Amino acid sequence: MIKRLRYENGDLDAVDLRILRMLVDDARASVAEIARSVGMSAPSVSERIRRLQEGGIIEGYTIRINPAAFGLPLAAWLRIRPVPGQLGTVSEILRDIPEIATCDRVTGEDCFIARVHVGSVPDLERVIDRIIPYAMTNTSIIQSSPVTERLPMPAGAND
Amino acid sequence: MIKRLRYENGDLDAVDLRILRMLVDDARASVAEIARSVGMSAPSVSERIRRLQEGGIIEGYTIRINPAAFGLPLAAWLRIRPVPGQLGTVSEILRDIPEIATCDRVTGEDCFIARVHVGSVPDLERVIDRIIPYAMTNTSIIQSSPVTERLPMPAGAND
DNA sequence: CATGAAAACAGGTCTTA
DNA sequence: TAAGACCTGTTTTCATG
Predict the structure, then answer these.
(1) pLDDT for the residue A157
(2) Residues B118, B101: contact at Cβ < 8 Å?
(3) Which domains, and CATH codes, for chain A?
(4) Within 7 Å: CB of B10 and strand D?
């Protein structure tokens, strides 16, 4: 059985998925180029992209940054477990730490998972020292990335 | 003391940082618009963007996807610890699971940290079932995101 | 197919090492 | 004086009706 991806305006078909993959890969690919690749006219592709935006599937356009290239070669995941009563404080501190590139609130023993980019181990220590008064932390240095940011897909989707 | 962001071709100044922030926020902002915002001519901004690309700081252009909008409303972080001797196998399996949007190899007790997007709890179970023969897993459902993907910055940077 | 906007390009000026 | 950064005007490309 084939799974169908749905959104408010109807089904996403294989062409939509190919368009999305191309845009994830290179958001500056021209409409003409995408059209050629999927075998459609440029206006048709243009219209599909418009619908993907209005359906909220494409939230926006952004750049991929290489933190190492501007002096932040050390990346780590921090798991953060606030001491009772300090959850709000910790949340605010995390937002205020500029080295944190992303942070999610999660279920389970840890309350937050944050990705940090720093220049050195002492810099990492300084980041942790800002959190440690209000939470227990657990740090994992990123060594490599077997899967870099890509379009998630349900198993057996209609692509 | 002001920290200076360095890259191979020299220093990044405050204007470069503003350009990067604008592009992270909206990679389709026109050069003219960015130029107006930073108080420069379009060609100057264009030249700076070119240098940021050639310096490897801007790795590429991409789109922000909302997985919930196309039928994957449930997101989770998986921590994965392969049983001895199965690290390579696990790494391959993780690459093959289409629901995994990103996966890092890390130091510490866990070997991998992966973000998955699925349609339902049963779908999450199916993902975990593919991994469990070769590794111990620990799952944290994402509830919210106090910090959404942003440009990391050293404390006290020259912006 | 035509129109309008936006980006790439070329040439000229000013500052600074 | 030479190099680099920026600005103005022009051309060409691309998205859109």
Answers:
(1) 74
(2) no
(3) 5-54 (1.10.10.10), 67-141 (3.30.70.920)
(4) yes
